Amino acid sequence: MSFRTLTLDASLEALAEISDFVVDQARAAGLDEHAVWEVQLAADEAATNVIQHSYRQCSGPITIATQVIANEFEITITDQGEPFNPDTVPEPDLVSPLEERKTGGLGLFLMRKLMDRVEFRFQGGENVLVMAKRIRQADFRVVSLTGRIDAAAAPEVNRMVRQAMRDGGKQIVVELRDVTFLSSSGLRALLLLARELRRDGGDLVLCALQPQVAEVFHLTGFDQIFQLHHTREEATAGFGNAA
Q: What angle, 0 to 180 degrees and rounded to 10, lies between the N-to-C axes of helices 33-49 and 106-114?
């Protein structure tokens, strides 16, 4: 992923554009949707602190730069406001009763909770904040089936799914977009594979079923056993990144 930057006037109106930029770059870097949300919130807290505190006596630019380094999605936020020392920020009060609780320090607390690395420095007259989120590889695989899934095809279905499991997939998405026929033998093969995966802490979900194939699941009650999704993207969203 190439080095990308965004520079804006530091104002509260800029927060939405900063958020959109960070989300787009985080997704492009391969982060799953939950990690994208974590990065988005951390960046928003950081940018808000710059706008409300670093530039409280003046105005100036804020620059957000992103890149992927050594399997980390890294965000660098730079401003030219008042020098910031994180050691002067008190720990947030998370235990006092509502009427006694102070709200200071929550932004920095969230940044450190959400990100894997948070570093501050002041150099060349600028505040520089570097935050990083590890890119965790999803352990799912997509298996696309075609044609008839009947007693004759069941062994091949079993082979393909087991190959995906051997390749490291604990979460298997079986795509049925090009399956034109499904019999009880095909259902049985999928059930046995799903049972084995769930016993080992994984799962098998299905997506893109043609209407007649979906009806077989409904008639047999197998739609209560399997998760049925409309698209591959929908199916993989719960596992991590779409393939």
A: 150
Give pLDDT tens digits for 37-51: 999 999 999 999 999
* Residue 5: HSE in the Cβ half-sphere, 13 Å Cα cutoff: 8
What share of the chain in percent tops pLDDT 70?
Answer: 90
How many Cβ atoms are within 10 Å of 123's Cβ, its own excluded?
8
- CA gap 68, 36 in Å, rounded: 14
Residues 47, 15 contacting (CB under 8 angstroms):
yes
CB neighbours of 187 closer than 8 A, spacing ≥ 6? 216, 217, 220, 222
Asked if 177 and 142 count as a contact pair (C-beta separation under 8 A), the reply is no
Is the per-residue pLDDT at 34 higher than 90? no
Rounded alpha-carbon distances, angstroms, from residue 87 to 57, 80, 84, 91, 120: 21, 19, 9, 10, 10
Domains of the chain (ranges, CATH numbers): 4-134 (3.30.565.10), 140-237 (3.30.750.24)
pLDDT exceeds cutoff 60 at 243: no
Closest CA to 176 of 139, 222, 142, 220: 142
Q: Do 232 and 243 touch, CB atoms closer than 8 A? A: yes
Is-above-0.85 flag for pTM? Answer: no
In the predicted model, is pLDDT for residue 242 greater than 50?
Answer: no
- What is the largest distance, in Å, between two alpha-carbon atoms of the chain? 75
Residue by residue, DSSP assigns 31-53 as --HHHHHHHHHHHHHHHHHIIII
pLDDT of 63-84, one tens digit each?
Answer: 999 999 988 999 999 999 999 8
Tell me if 109 sits within 8 A of 142, measured CB to CB.
no
